[in-house]
Amino acid sequence: MNLSTVNNVFFIGIGGIGMSALARYFKSVGKAVSGYDKTPSEITSTLEDLGIVIHFKDDVQFVEKIYNNTNETLVVYTPAIPKTHSQLNYFMSHGFNVMKRSQVLGLITENTFCLAVAGTHGKTTTTSILGHLLYQSNVKLTAFLGGISENYNSNLILNGDEISVVEADEFDRSFLTLSPNLACITSMDADHLDIYGDASELKKSFEDFSKRIKPNGTLFVKNGLPLKGVTYGIEDDADYTIQNIKIENGVYVFDIKTPKTVIPNLNFNLPGRHNLSNALIAMAMAMEYGVSPQKLASALASYKGVKRRFTYQIKTDNLVFIDDYAHHPEEIKAVHGAVREMYPDKKVLAVFQPHLFTRTRDFIDEFAESLSQFDEVLLLDIYPARELPIAGVTSSWLLDKINNDCKQLVSKQDLISKIHKSTAQVILTLGAGDIGEEVQHIKKQLSVAS
Q: Where is pLDDT greater, at 121 or 66?
């Protein structure tokens, strides 16, 4: 399909983080953009501020007439939309070009020099670091992010169309629509088993992705992963490695050893060894593209992070409140490690909302192990997203497996009061569901109390 013949783009599920980045992109290049989402959100509000019309009822009558031209309209949908969706079925049965988000991303990027970030963890942060490094180095790029960048308050970074930076999502094998020039794989832990069935199929999809790289392209892989490529790691024997790590005034200071040289005394503001790893691979990819280490060093020091990725809401001597998107056991472990490194002597309370019945079922013991590391745990009910309940898969089941004396189930209505009763000096909210919508309310109440 030739996107130049498209004048109108209609999104089904426009409020999704990946979908909204595409909506912003098409709006920026002069297309008419509209869409549907299930509920209003901060993201849909920002899109409406750009002049994008959004409705929240699944009814074809709300689709504006301009989008009824089958030759000029592209319909984009997310796999999270149910197959019974009436608007989706209308467009599919009336001869429209209907494509998944990942297919459209593949079309946009196929004629650019593409840098793609894949992995079950770390994609969003790494992609946003890479986009920031290139933007600050005045590279002519468009970066599609899976989160809202703190530097740009957006999930789209625009500075031209020669280069594309994309988050290569393994969900639904979406990343197999991409053909990158440079790519990395940050991790291959089992996830999305509702799609893949077992971990071996997930591994195979990453192997398939590695074969999508264009001739003369480069694949970077986290040291230790079972794939061939240029390796990167922390304090190890990888091709690119971080050395001499120090923490000065809450900031990482370190050197990067490359196959050719050593870049000394880099500064990076995000806590956690996992974020150091994300910064390293972003630096390696930017250097491989051709940006000078001197430019990159300055850009890295100014990187602020991604919303809901170890985002400080309150940071005082007496109280720290951090919000994070962590929804997989390995991500929870990474957050725990970062918190203990930064606040080794403080009591830590984790408020966790499990995301998906299938993920909770498939990793129940791993979730219990990772959550047991915190001093206190408050569990919310499972956020179902696209799923129906599964018998026996509940937060109560998870709670029983957590090896911690200070643990309890809590409703959203009682959450604030339970947090107030805690003596923890560090409070975390964790999860990929709607727990993020509670953050500002929690912050306000804690600020009043303190």
A: 66
CB 141, CB 160: distance < 8 Å: yes
Q: Which strand (E) or helix (H) includes residue 27? A: helix 17-28
Residues 6+ apart with CB under 8 A from 400: none
List Cβ neighbours of 68 (8 Å cut-off, separation of 6 or more).
Answer: none
CATH tag for 311-449 (out of 2.40.50.140, 3.30.420.40, 3.90.190.20, 3.40.50.300): 3.90.190.20
Q: Give the N- to C-terminal CA distance of the chain in Å, as an integer.
A: 57
pLDDT of residue 204: 84
Average model confidence (pLDDT) across the chain: 92
* Backbone φ/ψ region at 195: left (φ over 0), alpha (ψ -120 to 50), beta: alpha
**pLDDT above 60 for 192:** no
The CATH superfamily assigned to 3-101 is NAD(P)-binding Rossmann-like Domain (3.40.50.720)
* Among 263, 274, 266, residue whose Cα is nearest residue 299: 266
Q: How many angstroms separate the CA atoms of 263 and 103, rounded?
A: 38
Interatomic CA distance for residues 145 and 395, integer angstroms: 31
pLDDT one-digit tens code per residue, 32-54: 999 999 989 889 999 999 999 99
Residue ranges per domain, the chain?
Answer: 3-101, 110-301, 311-449
Enter the DSSP assignment of 383.
B
- C-alpha closest to that of 322 among 182, 430, 238: 430
For 347-404, the pLDDT digits (tens) are 999 999 999 999 999 999 999 999 999 999 999 999 998 789 999 999 999 999 999 9
Q: Which tokens hold the place of 337?
A: 């490690």
